[in-house]
Amino acid sequence: xTDLNPRPLLDGPPDASLVLILAHxxxxxxxxxxxxxxxxxxxxxxxxxxxxxxPYMAKSAADGRRRPPDREPVLxxxxxxxxxxERGAAGRLVVGGKSMGGRMAAMLADEVGAAxxxxxxxxxxxxxxxxxxxxxxxxxxxxxxxxxxxERDPFGNRAEVEGYALGGNPRIIWIADGEHGFKPRKASxxxxxxxxxxxxAAVLEFLRALA
Length: 211
Prior knowledge:
The protein contains seven helices and seven strands; from the N terminus they run ββαβααβαβαβαβα. It is an alpha/beta fold. It has one domain: Rossmann fold. The protein has a seven-stranded mixed beta sheet with strand order 1-3-2-4-5-6-7, sandwiched between helices. β6, α6 and β7 form a beta-alpha-beta unit.
C-alpha cells in the first residue's frame, strides 16, 4: 500500500551546510524528471536538496487519481511544516520550487527568514491570461531571490516579464528558447538537458553567492 504521507525525497550530503527545499509544481510529482535532474546536479556540488510532497499530490500518487492542487492555505502550511523540520539541520536554509511550488516558497521566504529563494519557471500569470498577474509575492520581497525563466514560458515570457516592475528586485536568468519546463525548440540548436543544466548552474552560482 502506498504511503499517504510520503517522506520528502532527499539528495546530497546529510551534513551539508546549505539546504534547499525545492517544492514541486501543480502538475508534477517531486520525482518528476525536471525535479530529479535539478536536484541531482545540485547535490553533486554538495547542496542538500529536499523535495517534499504537497498533500494533494501524495494522495494522487497513492490512488492514481488526478487531483487539483490544495487550497493555498493548505499548500503554505504543508511547506511551513517541511521548513520547520529541516531548519535545525541546516546552516543556511533556502526555499524554492518549480512553478506553483516556487510561488508558495516566495510567499513564505521572508516569513521564515530564508537565506534565499529559488524559483524555476515562476507562474507570473495563467497561460493566455496575461492580465491576471501573480506578482504580489515578489513585490516587497526582502529575501535574495533567483528566478530561472524560459524565454517562451506561457506563464510569463521574456517580453512580458521584462515589462514588470518587480519591487523585490529578483535576479532573473533567462533559459534560452525554453518553455515552462525549459524545453527549447529543435530549431534553436539546444536541448532540454542543456537548458536544465544551465538552470542548475545558475542556481549553484546563486547559492554560492549567499555564503
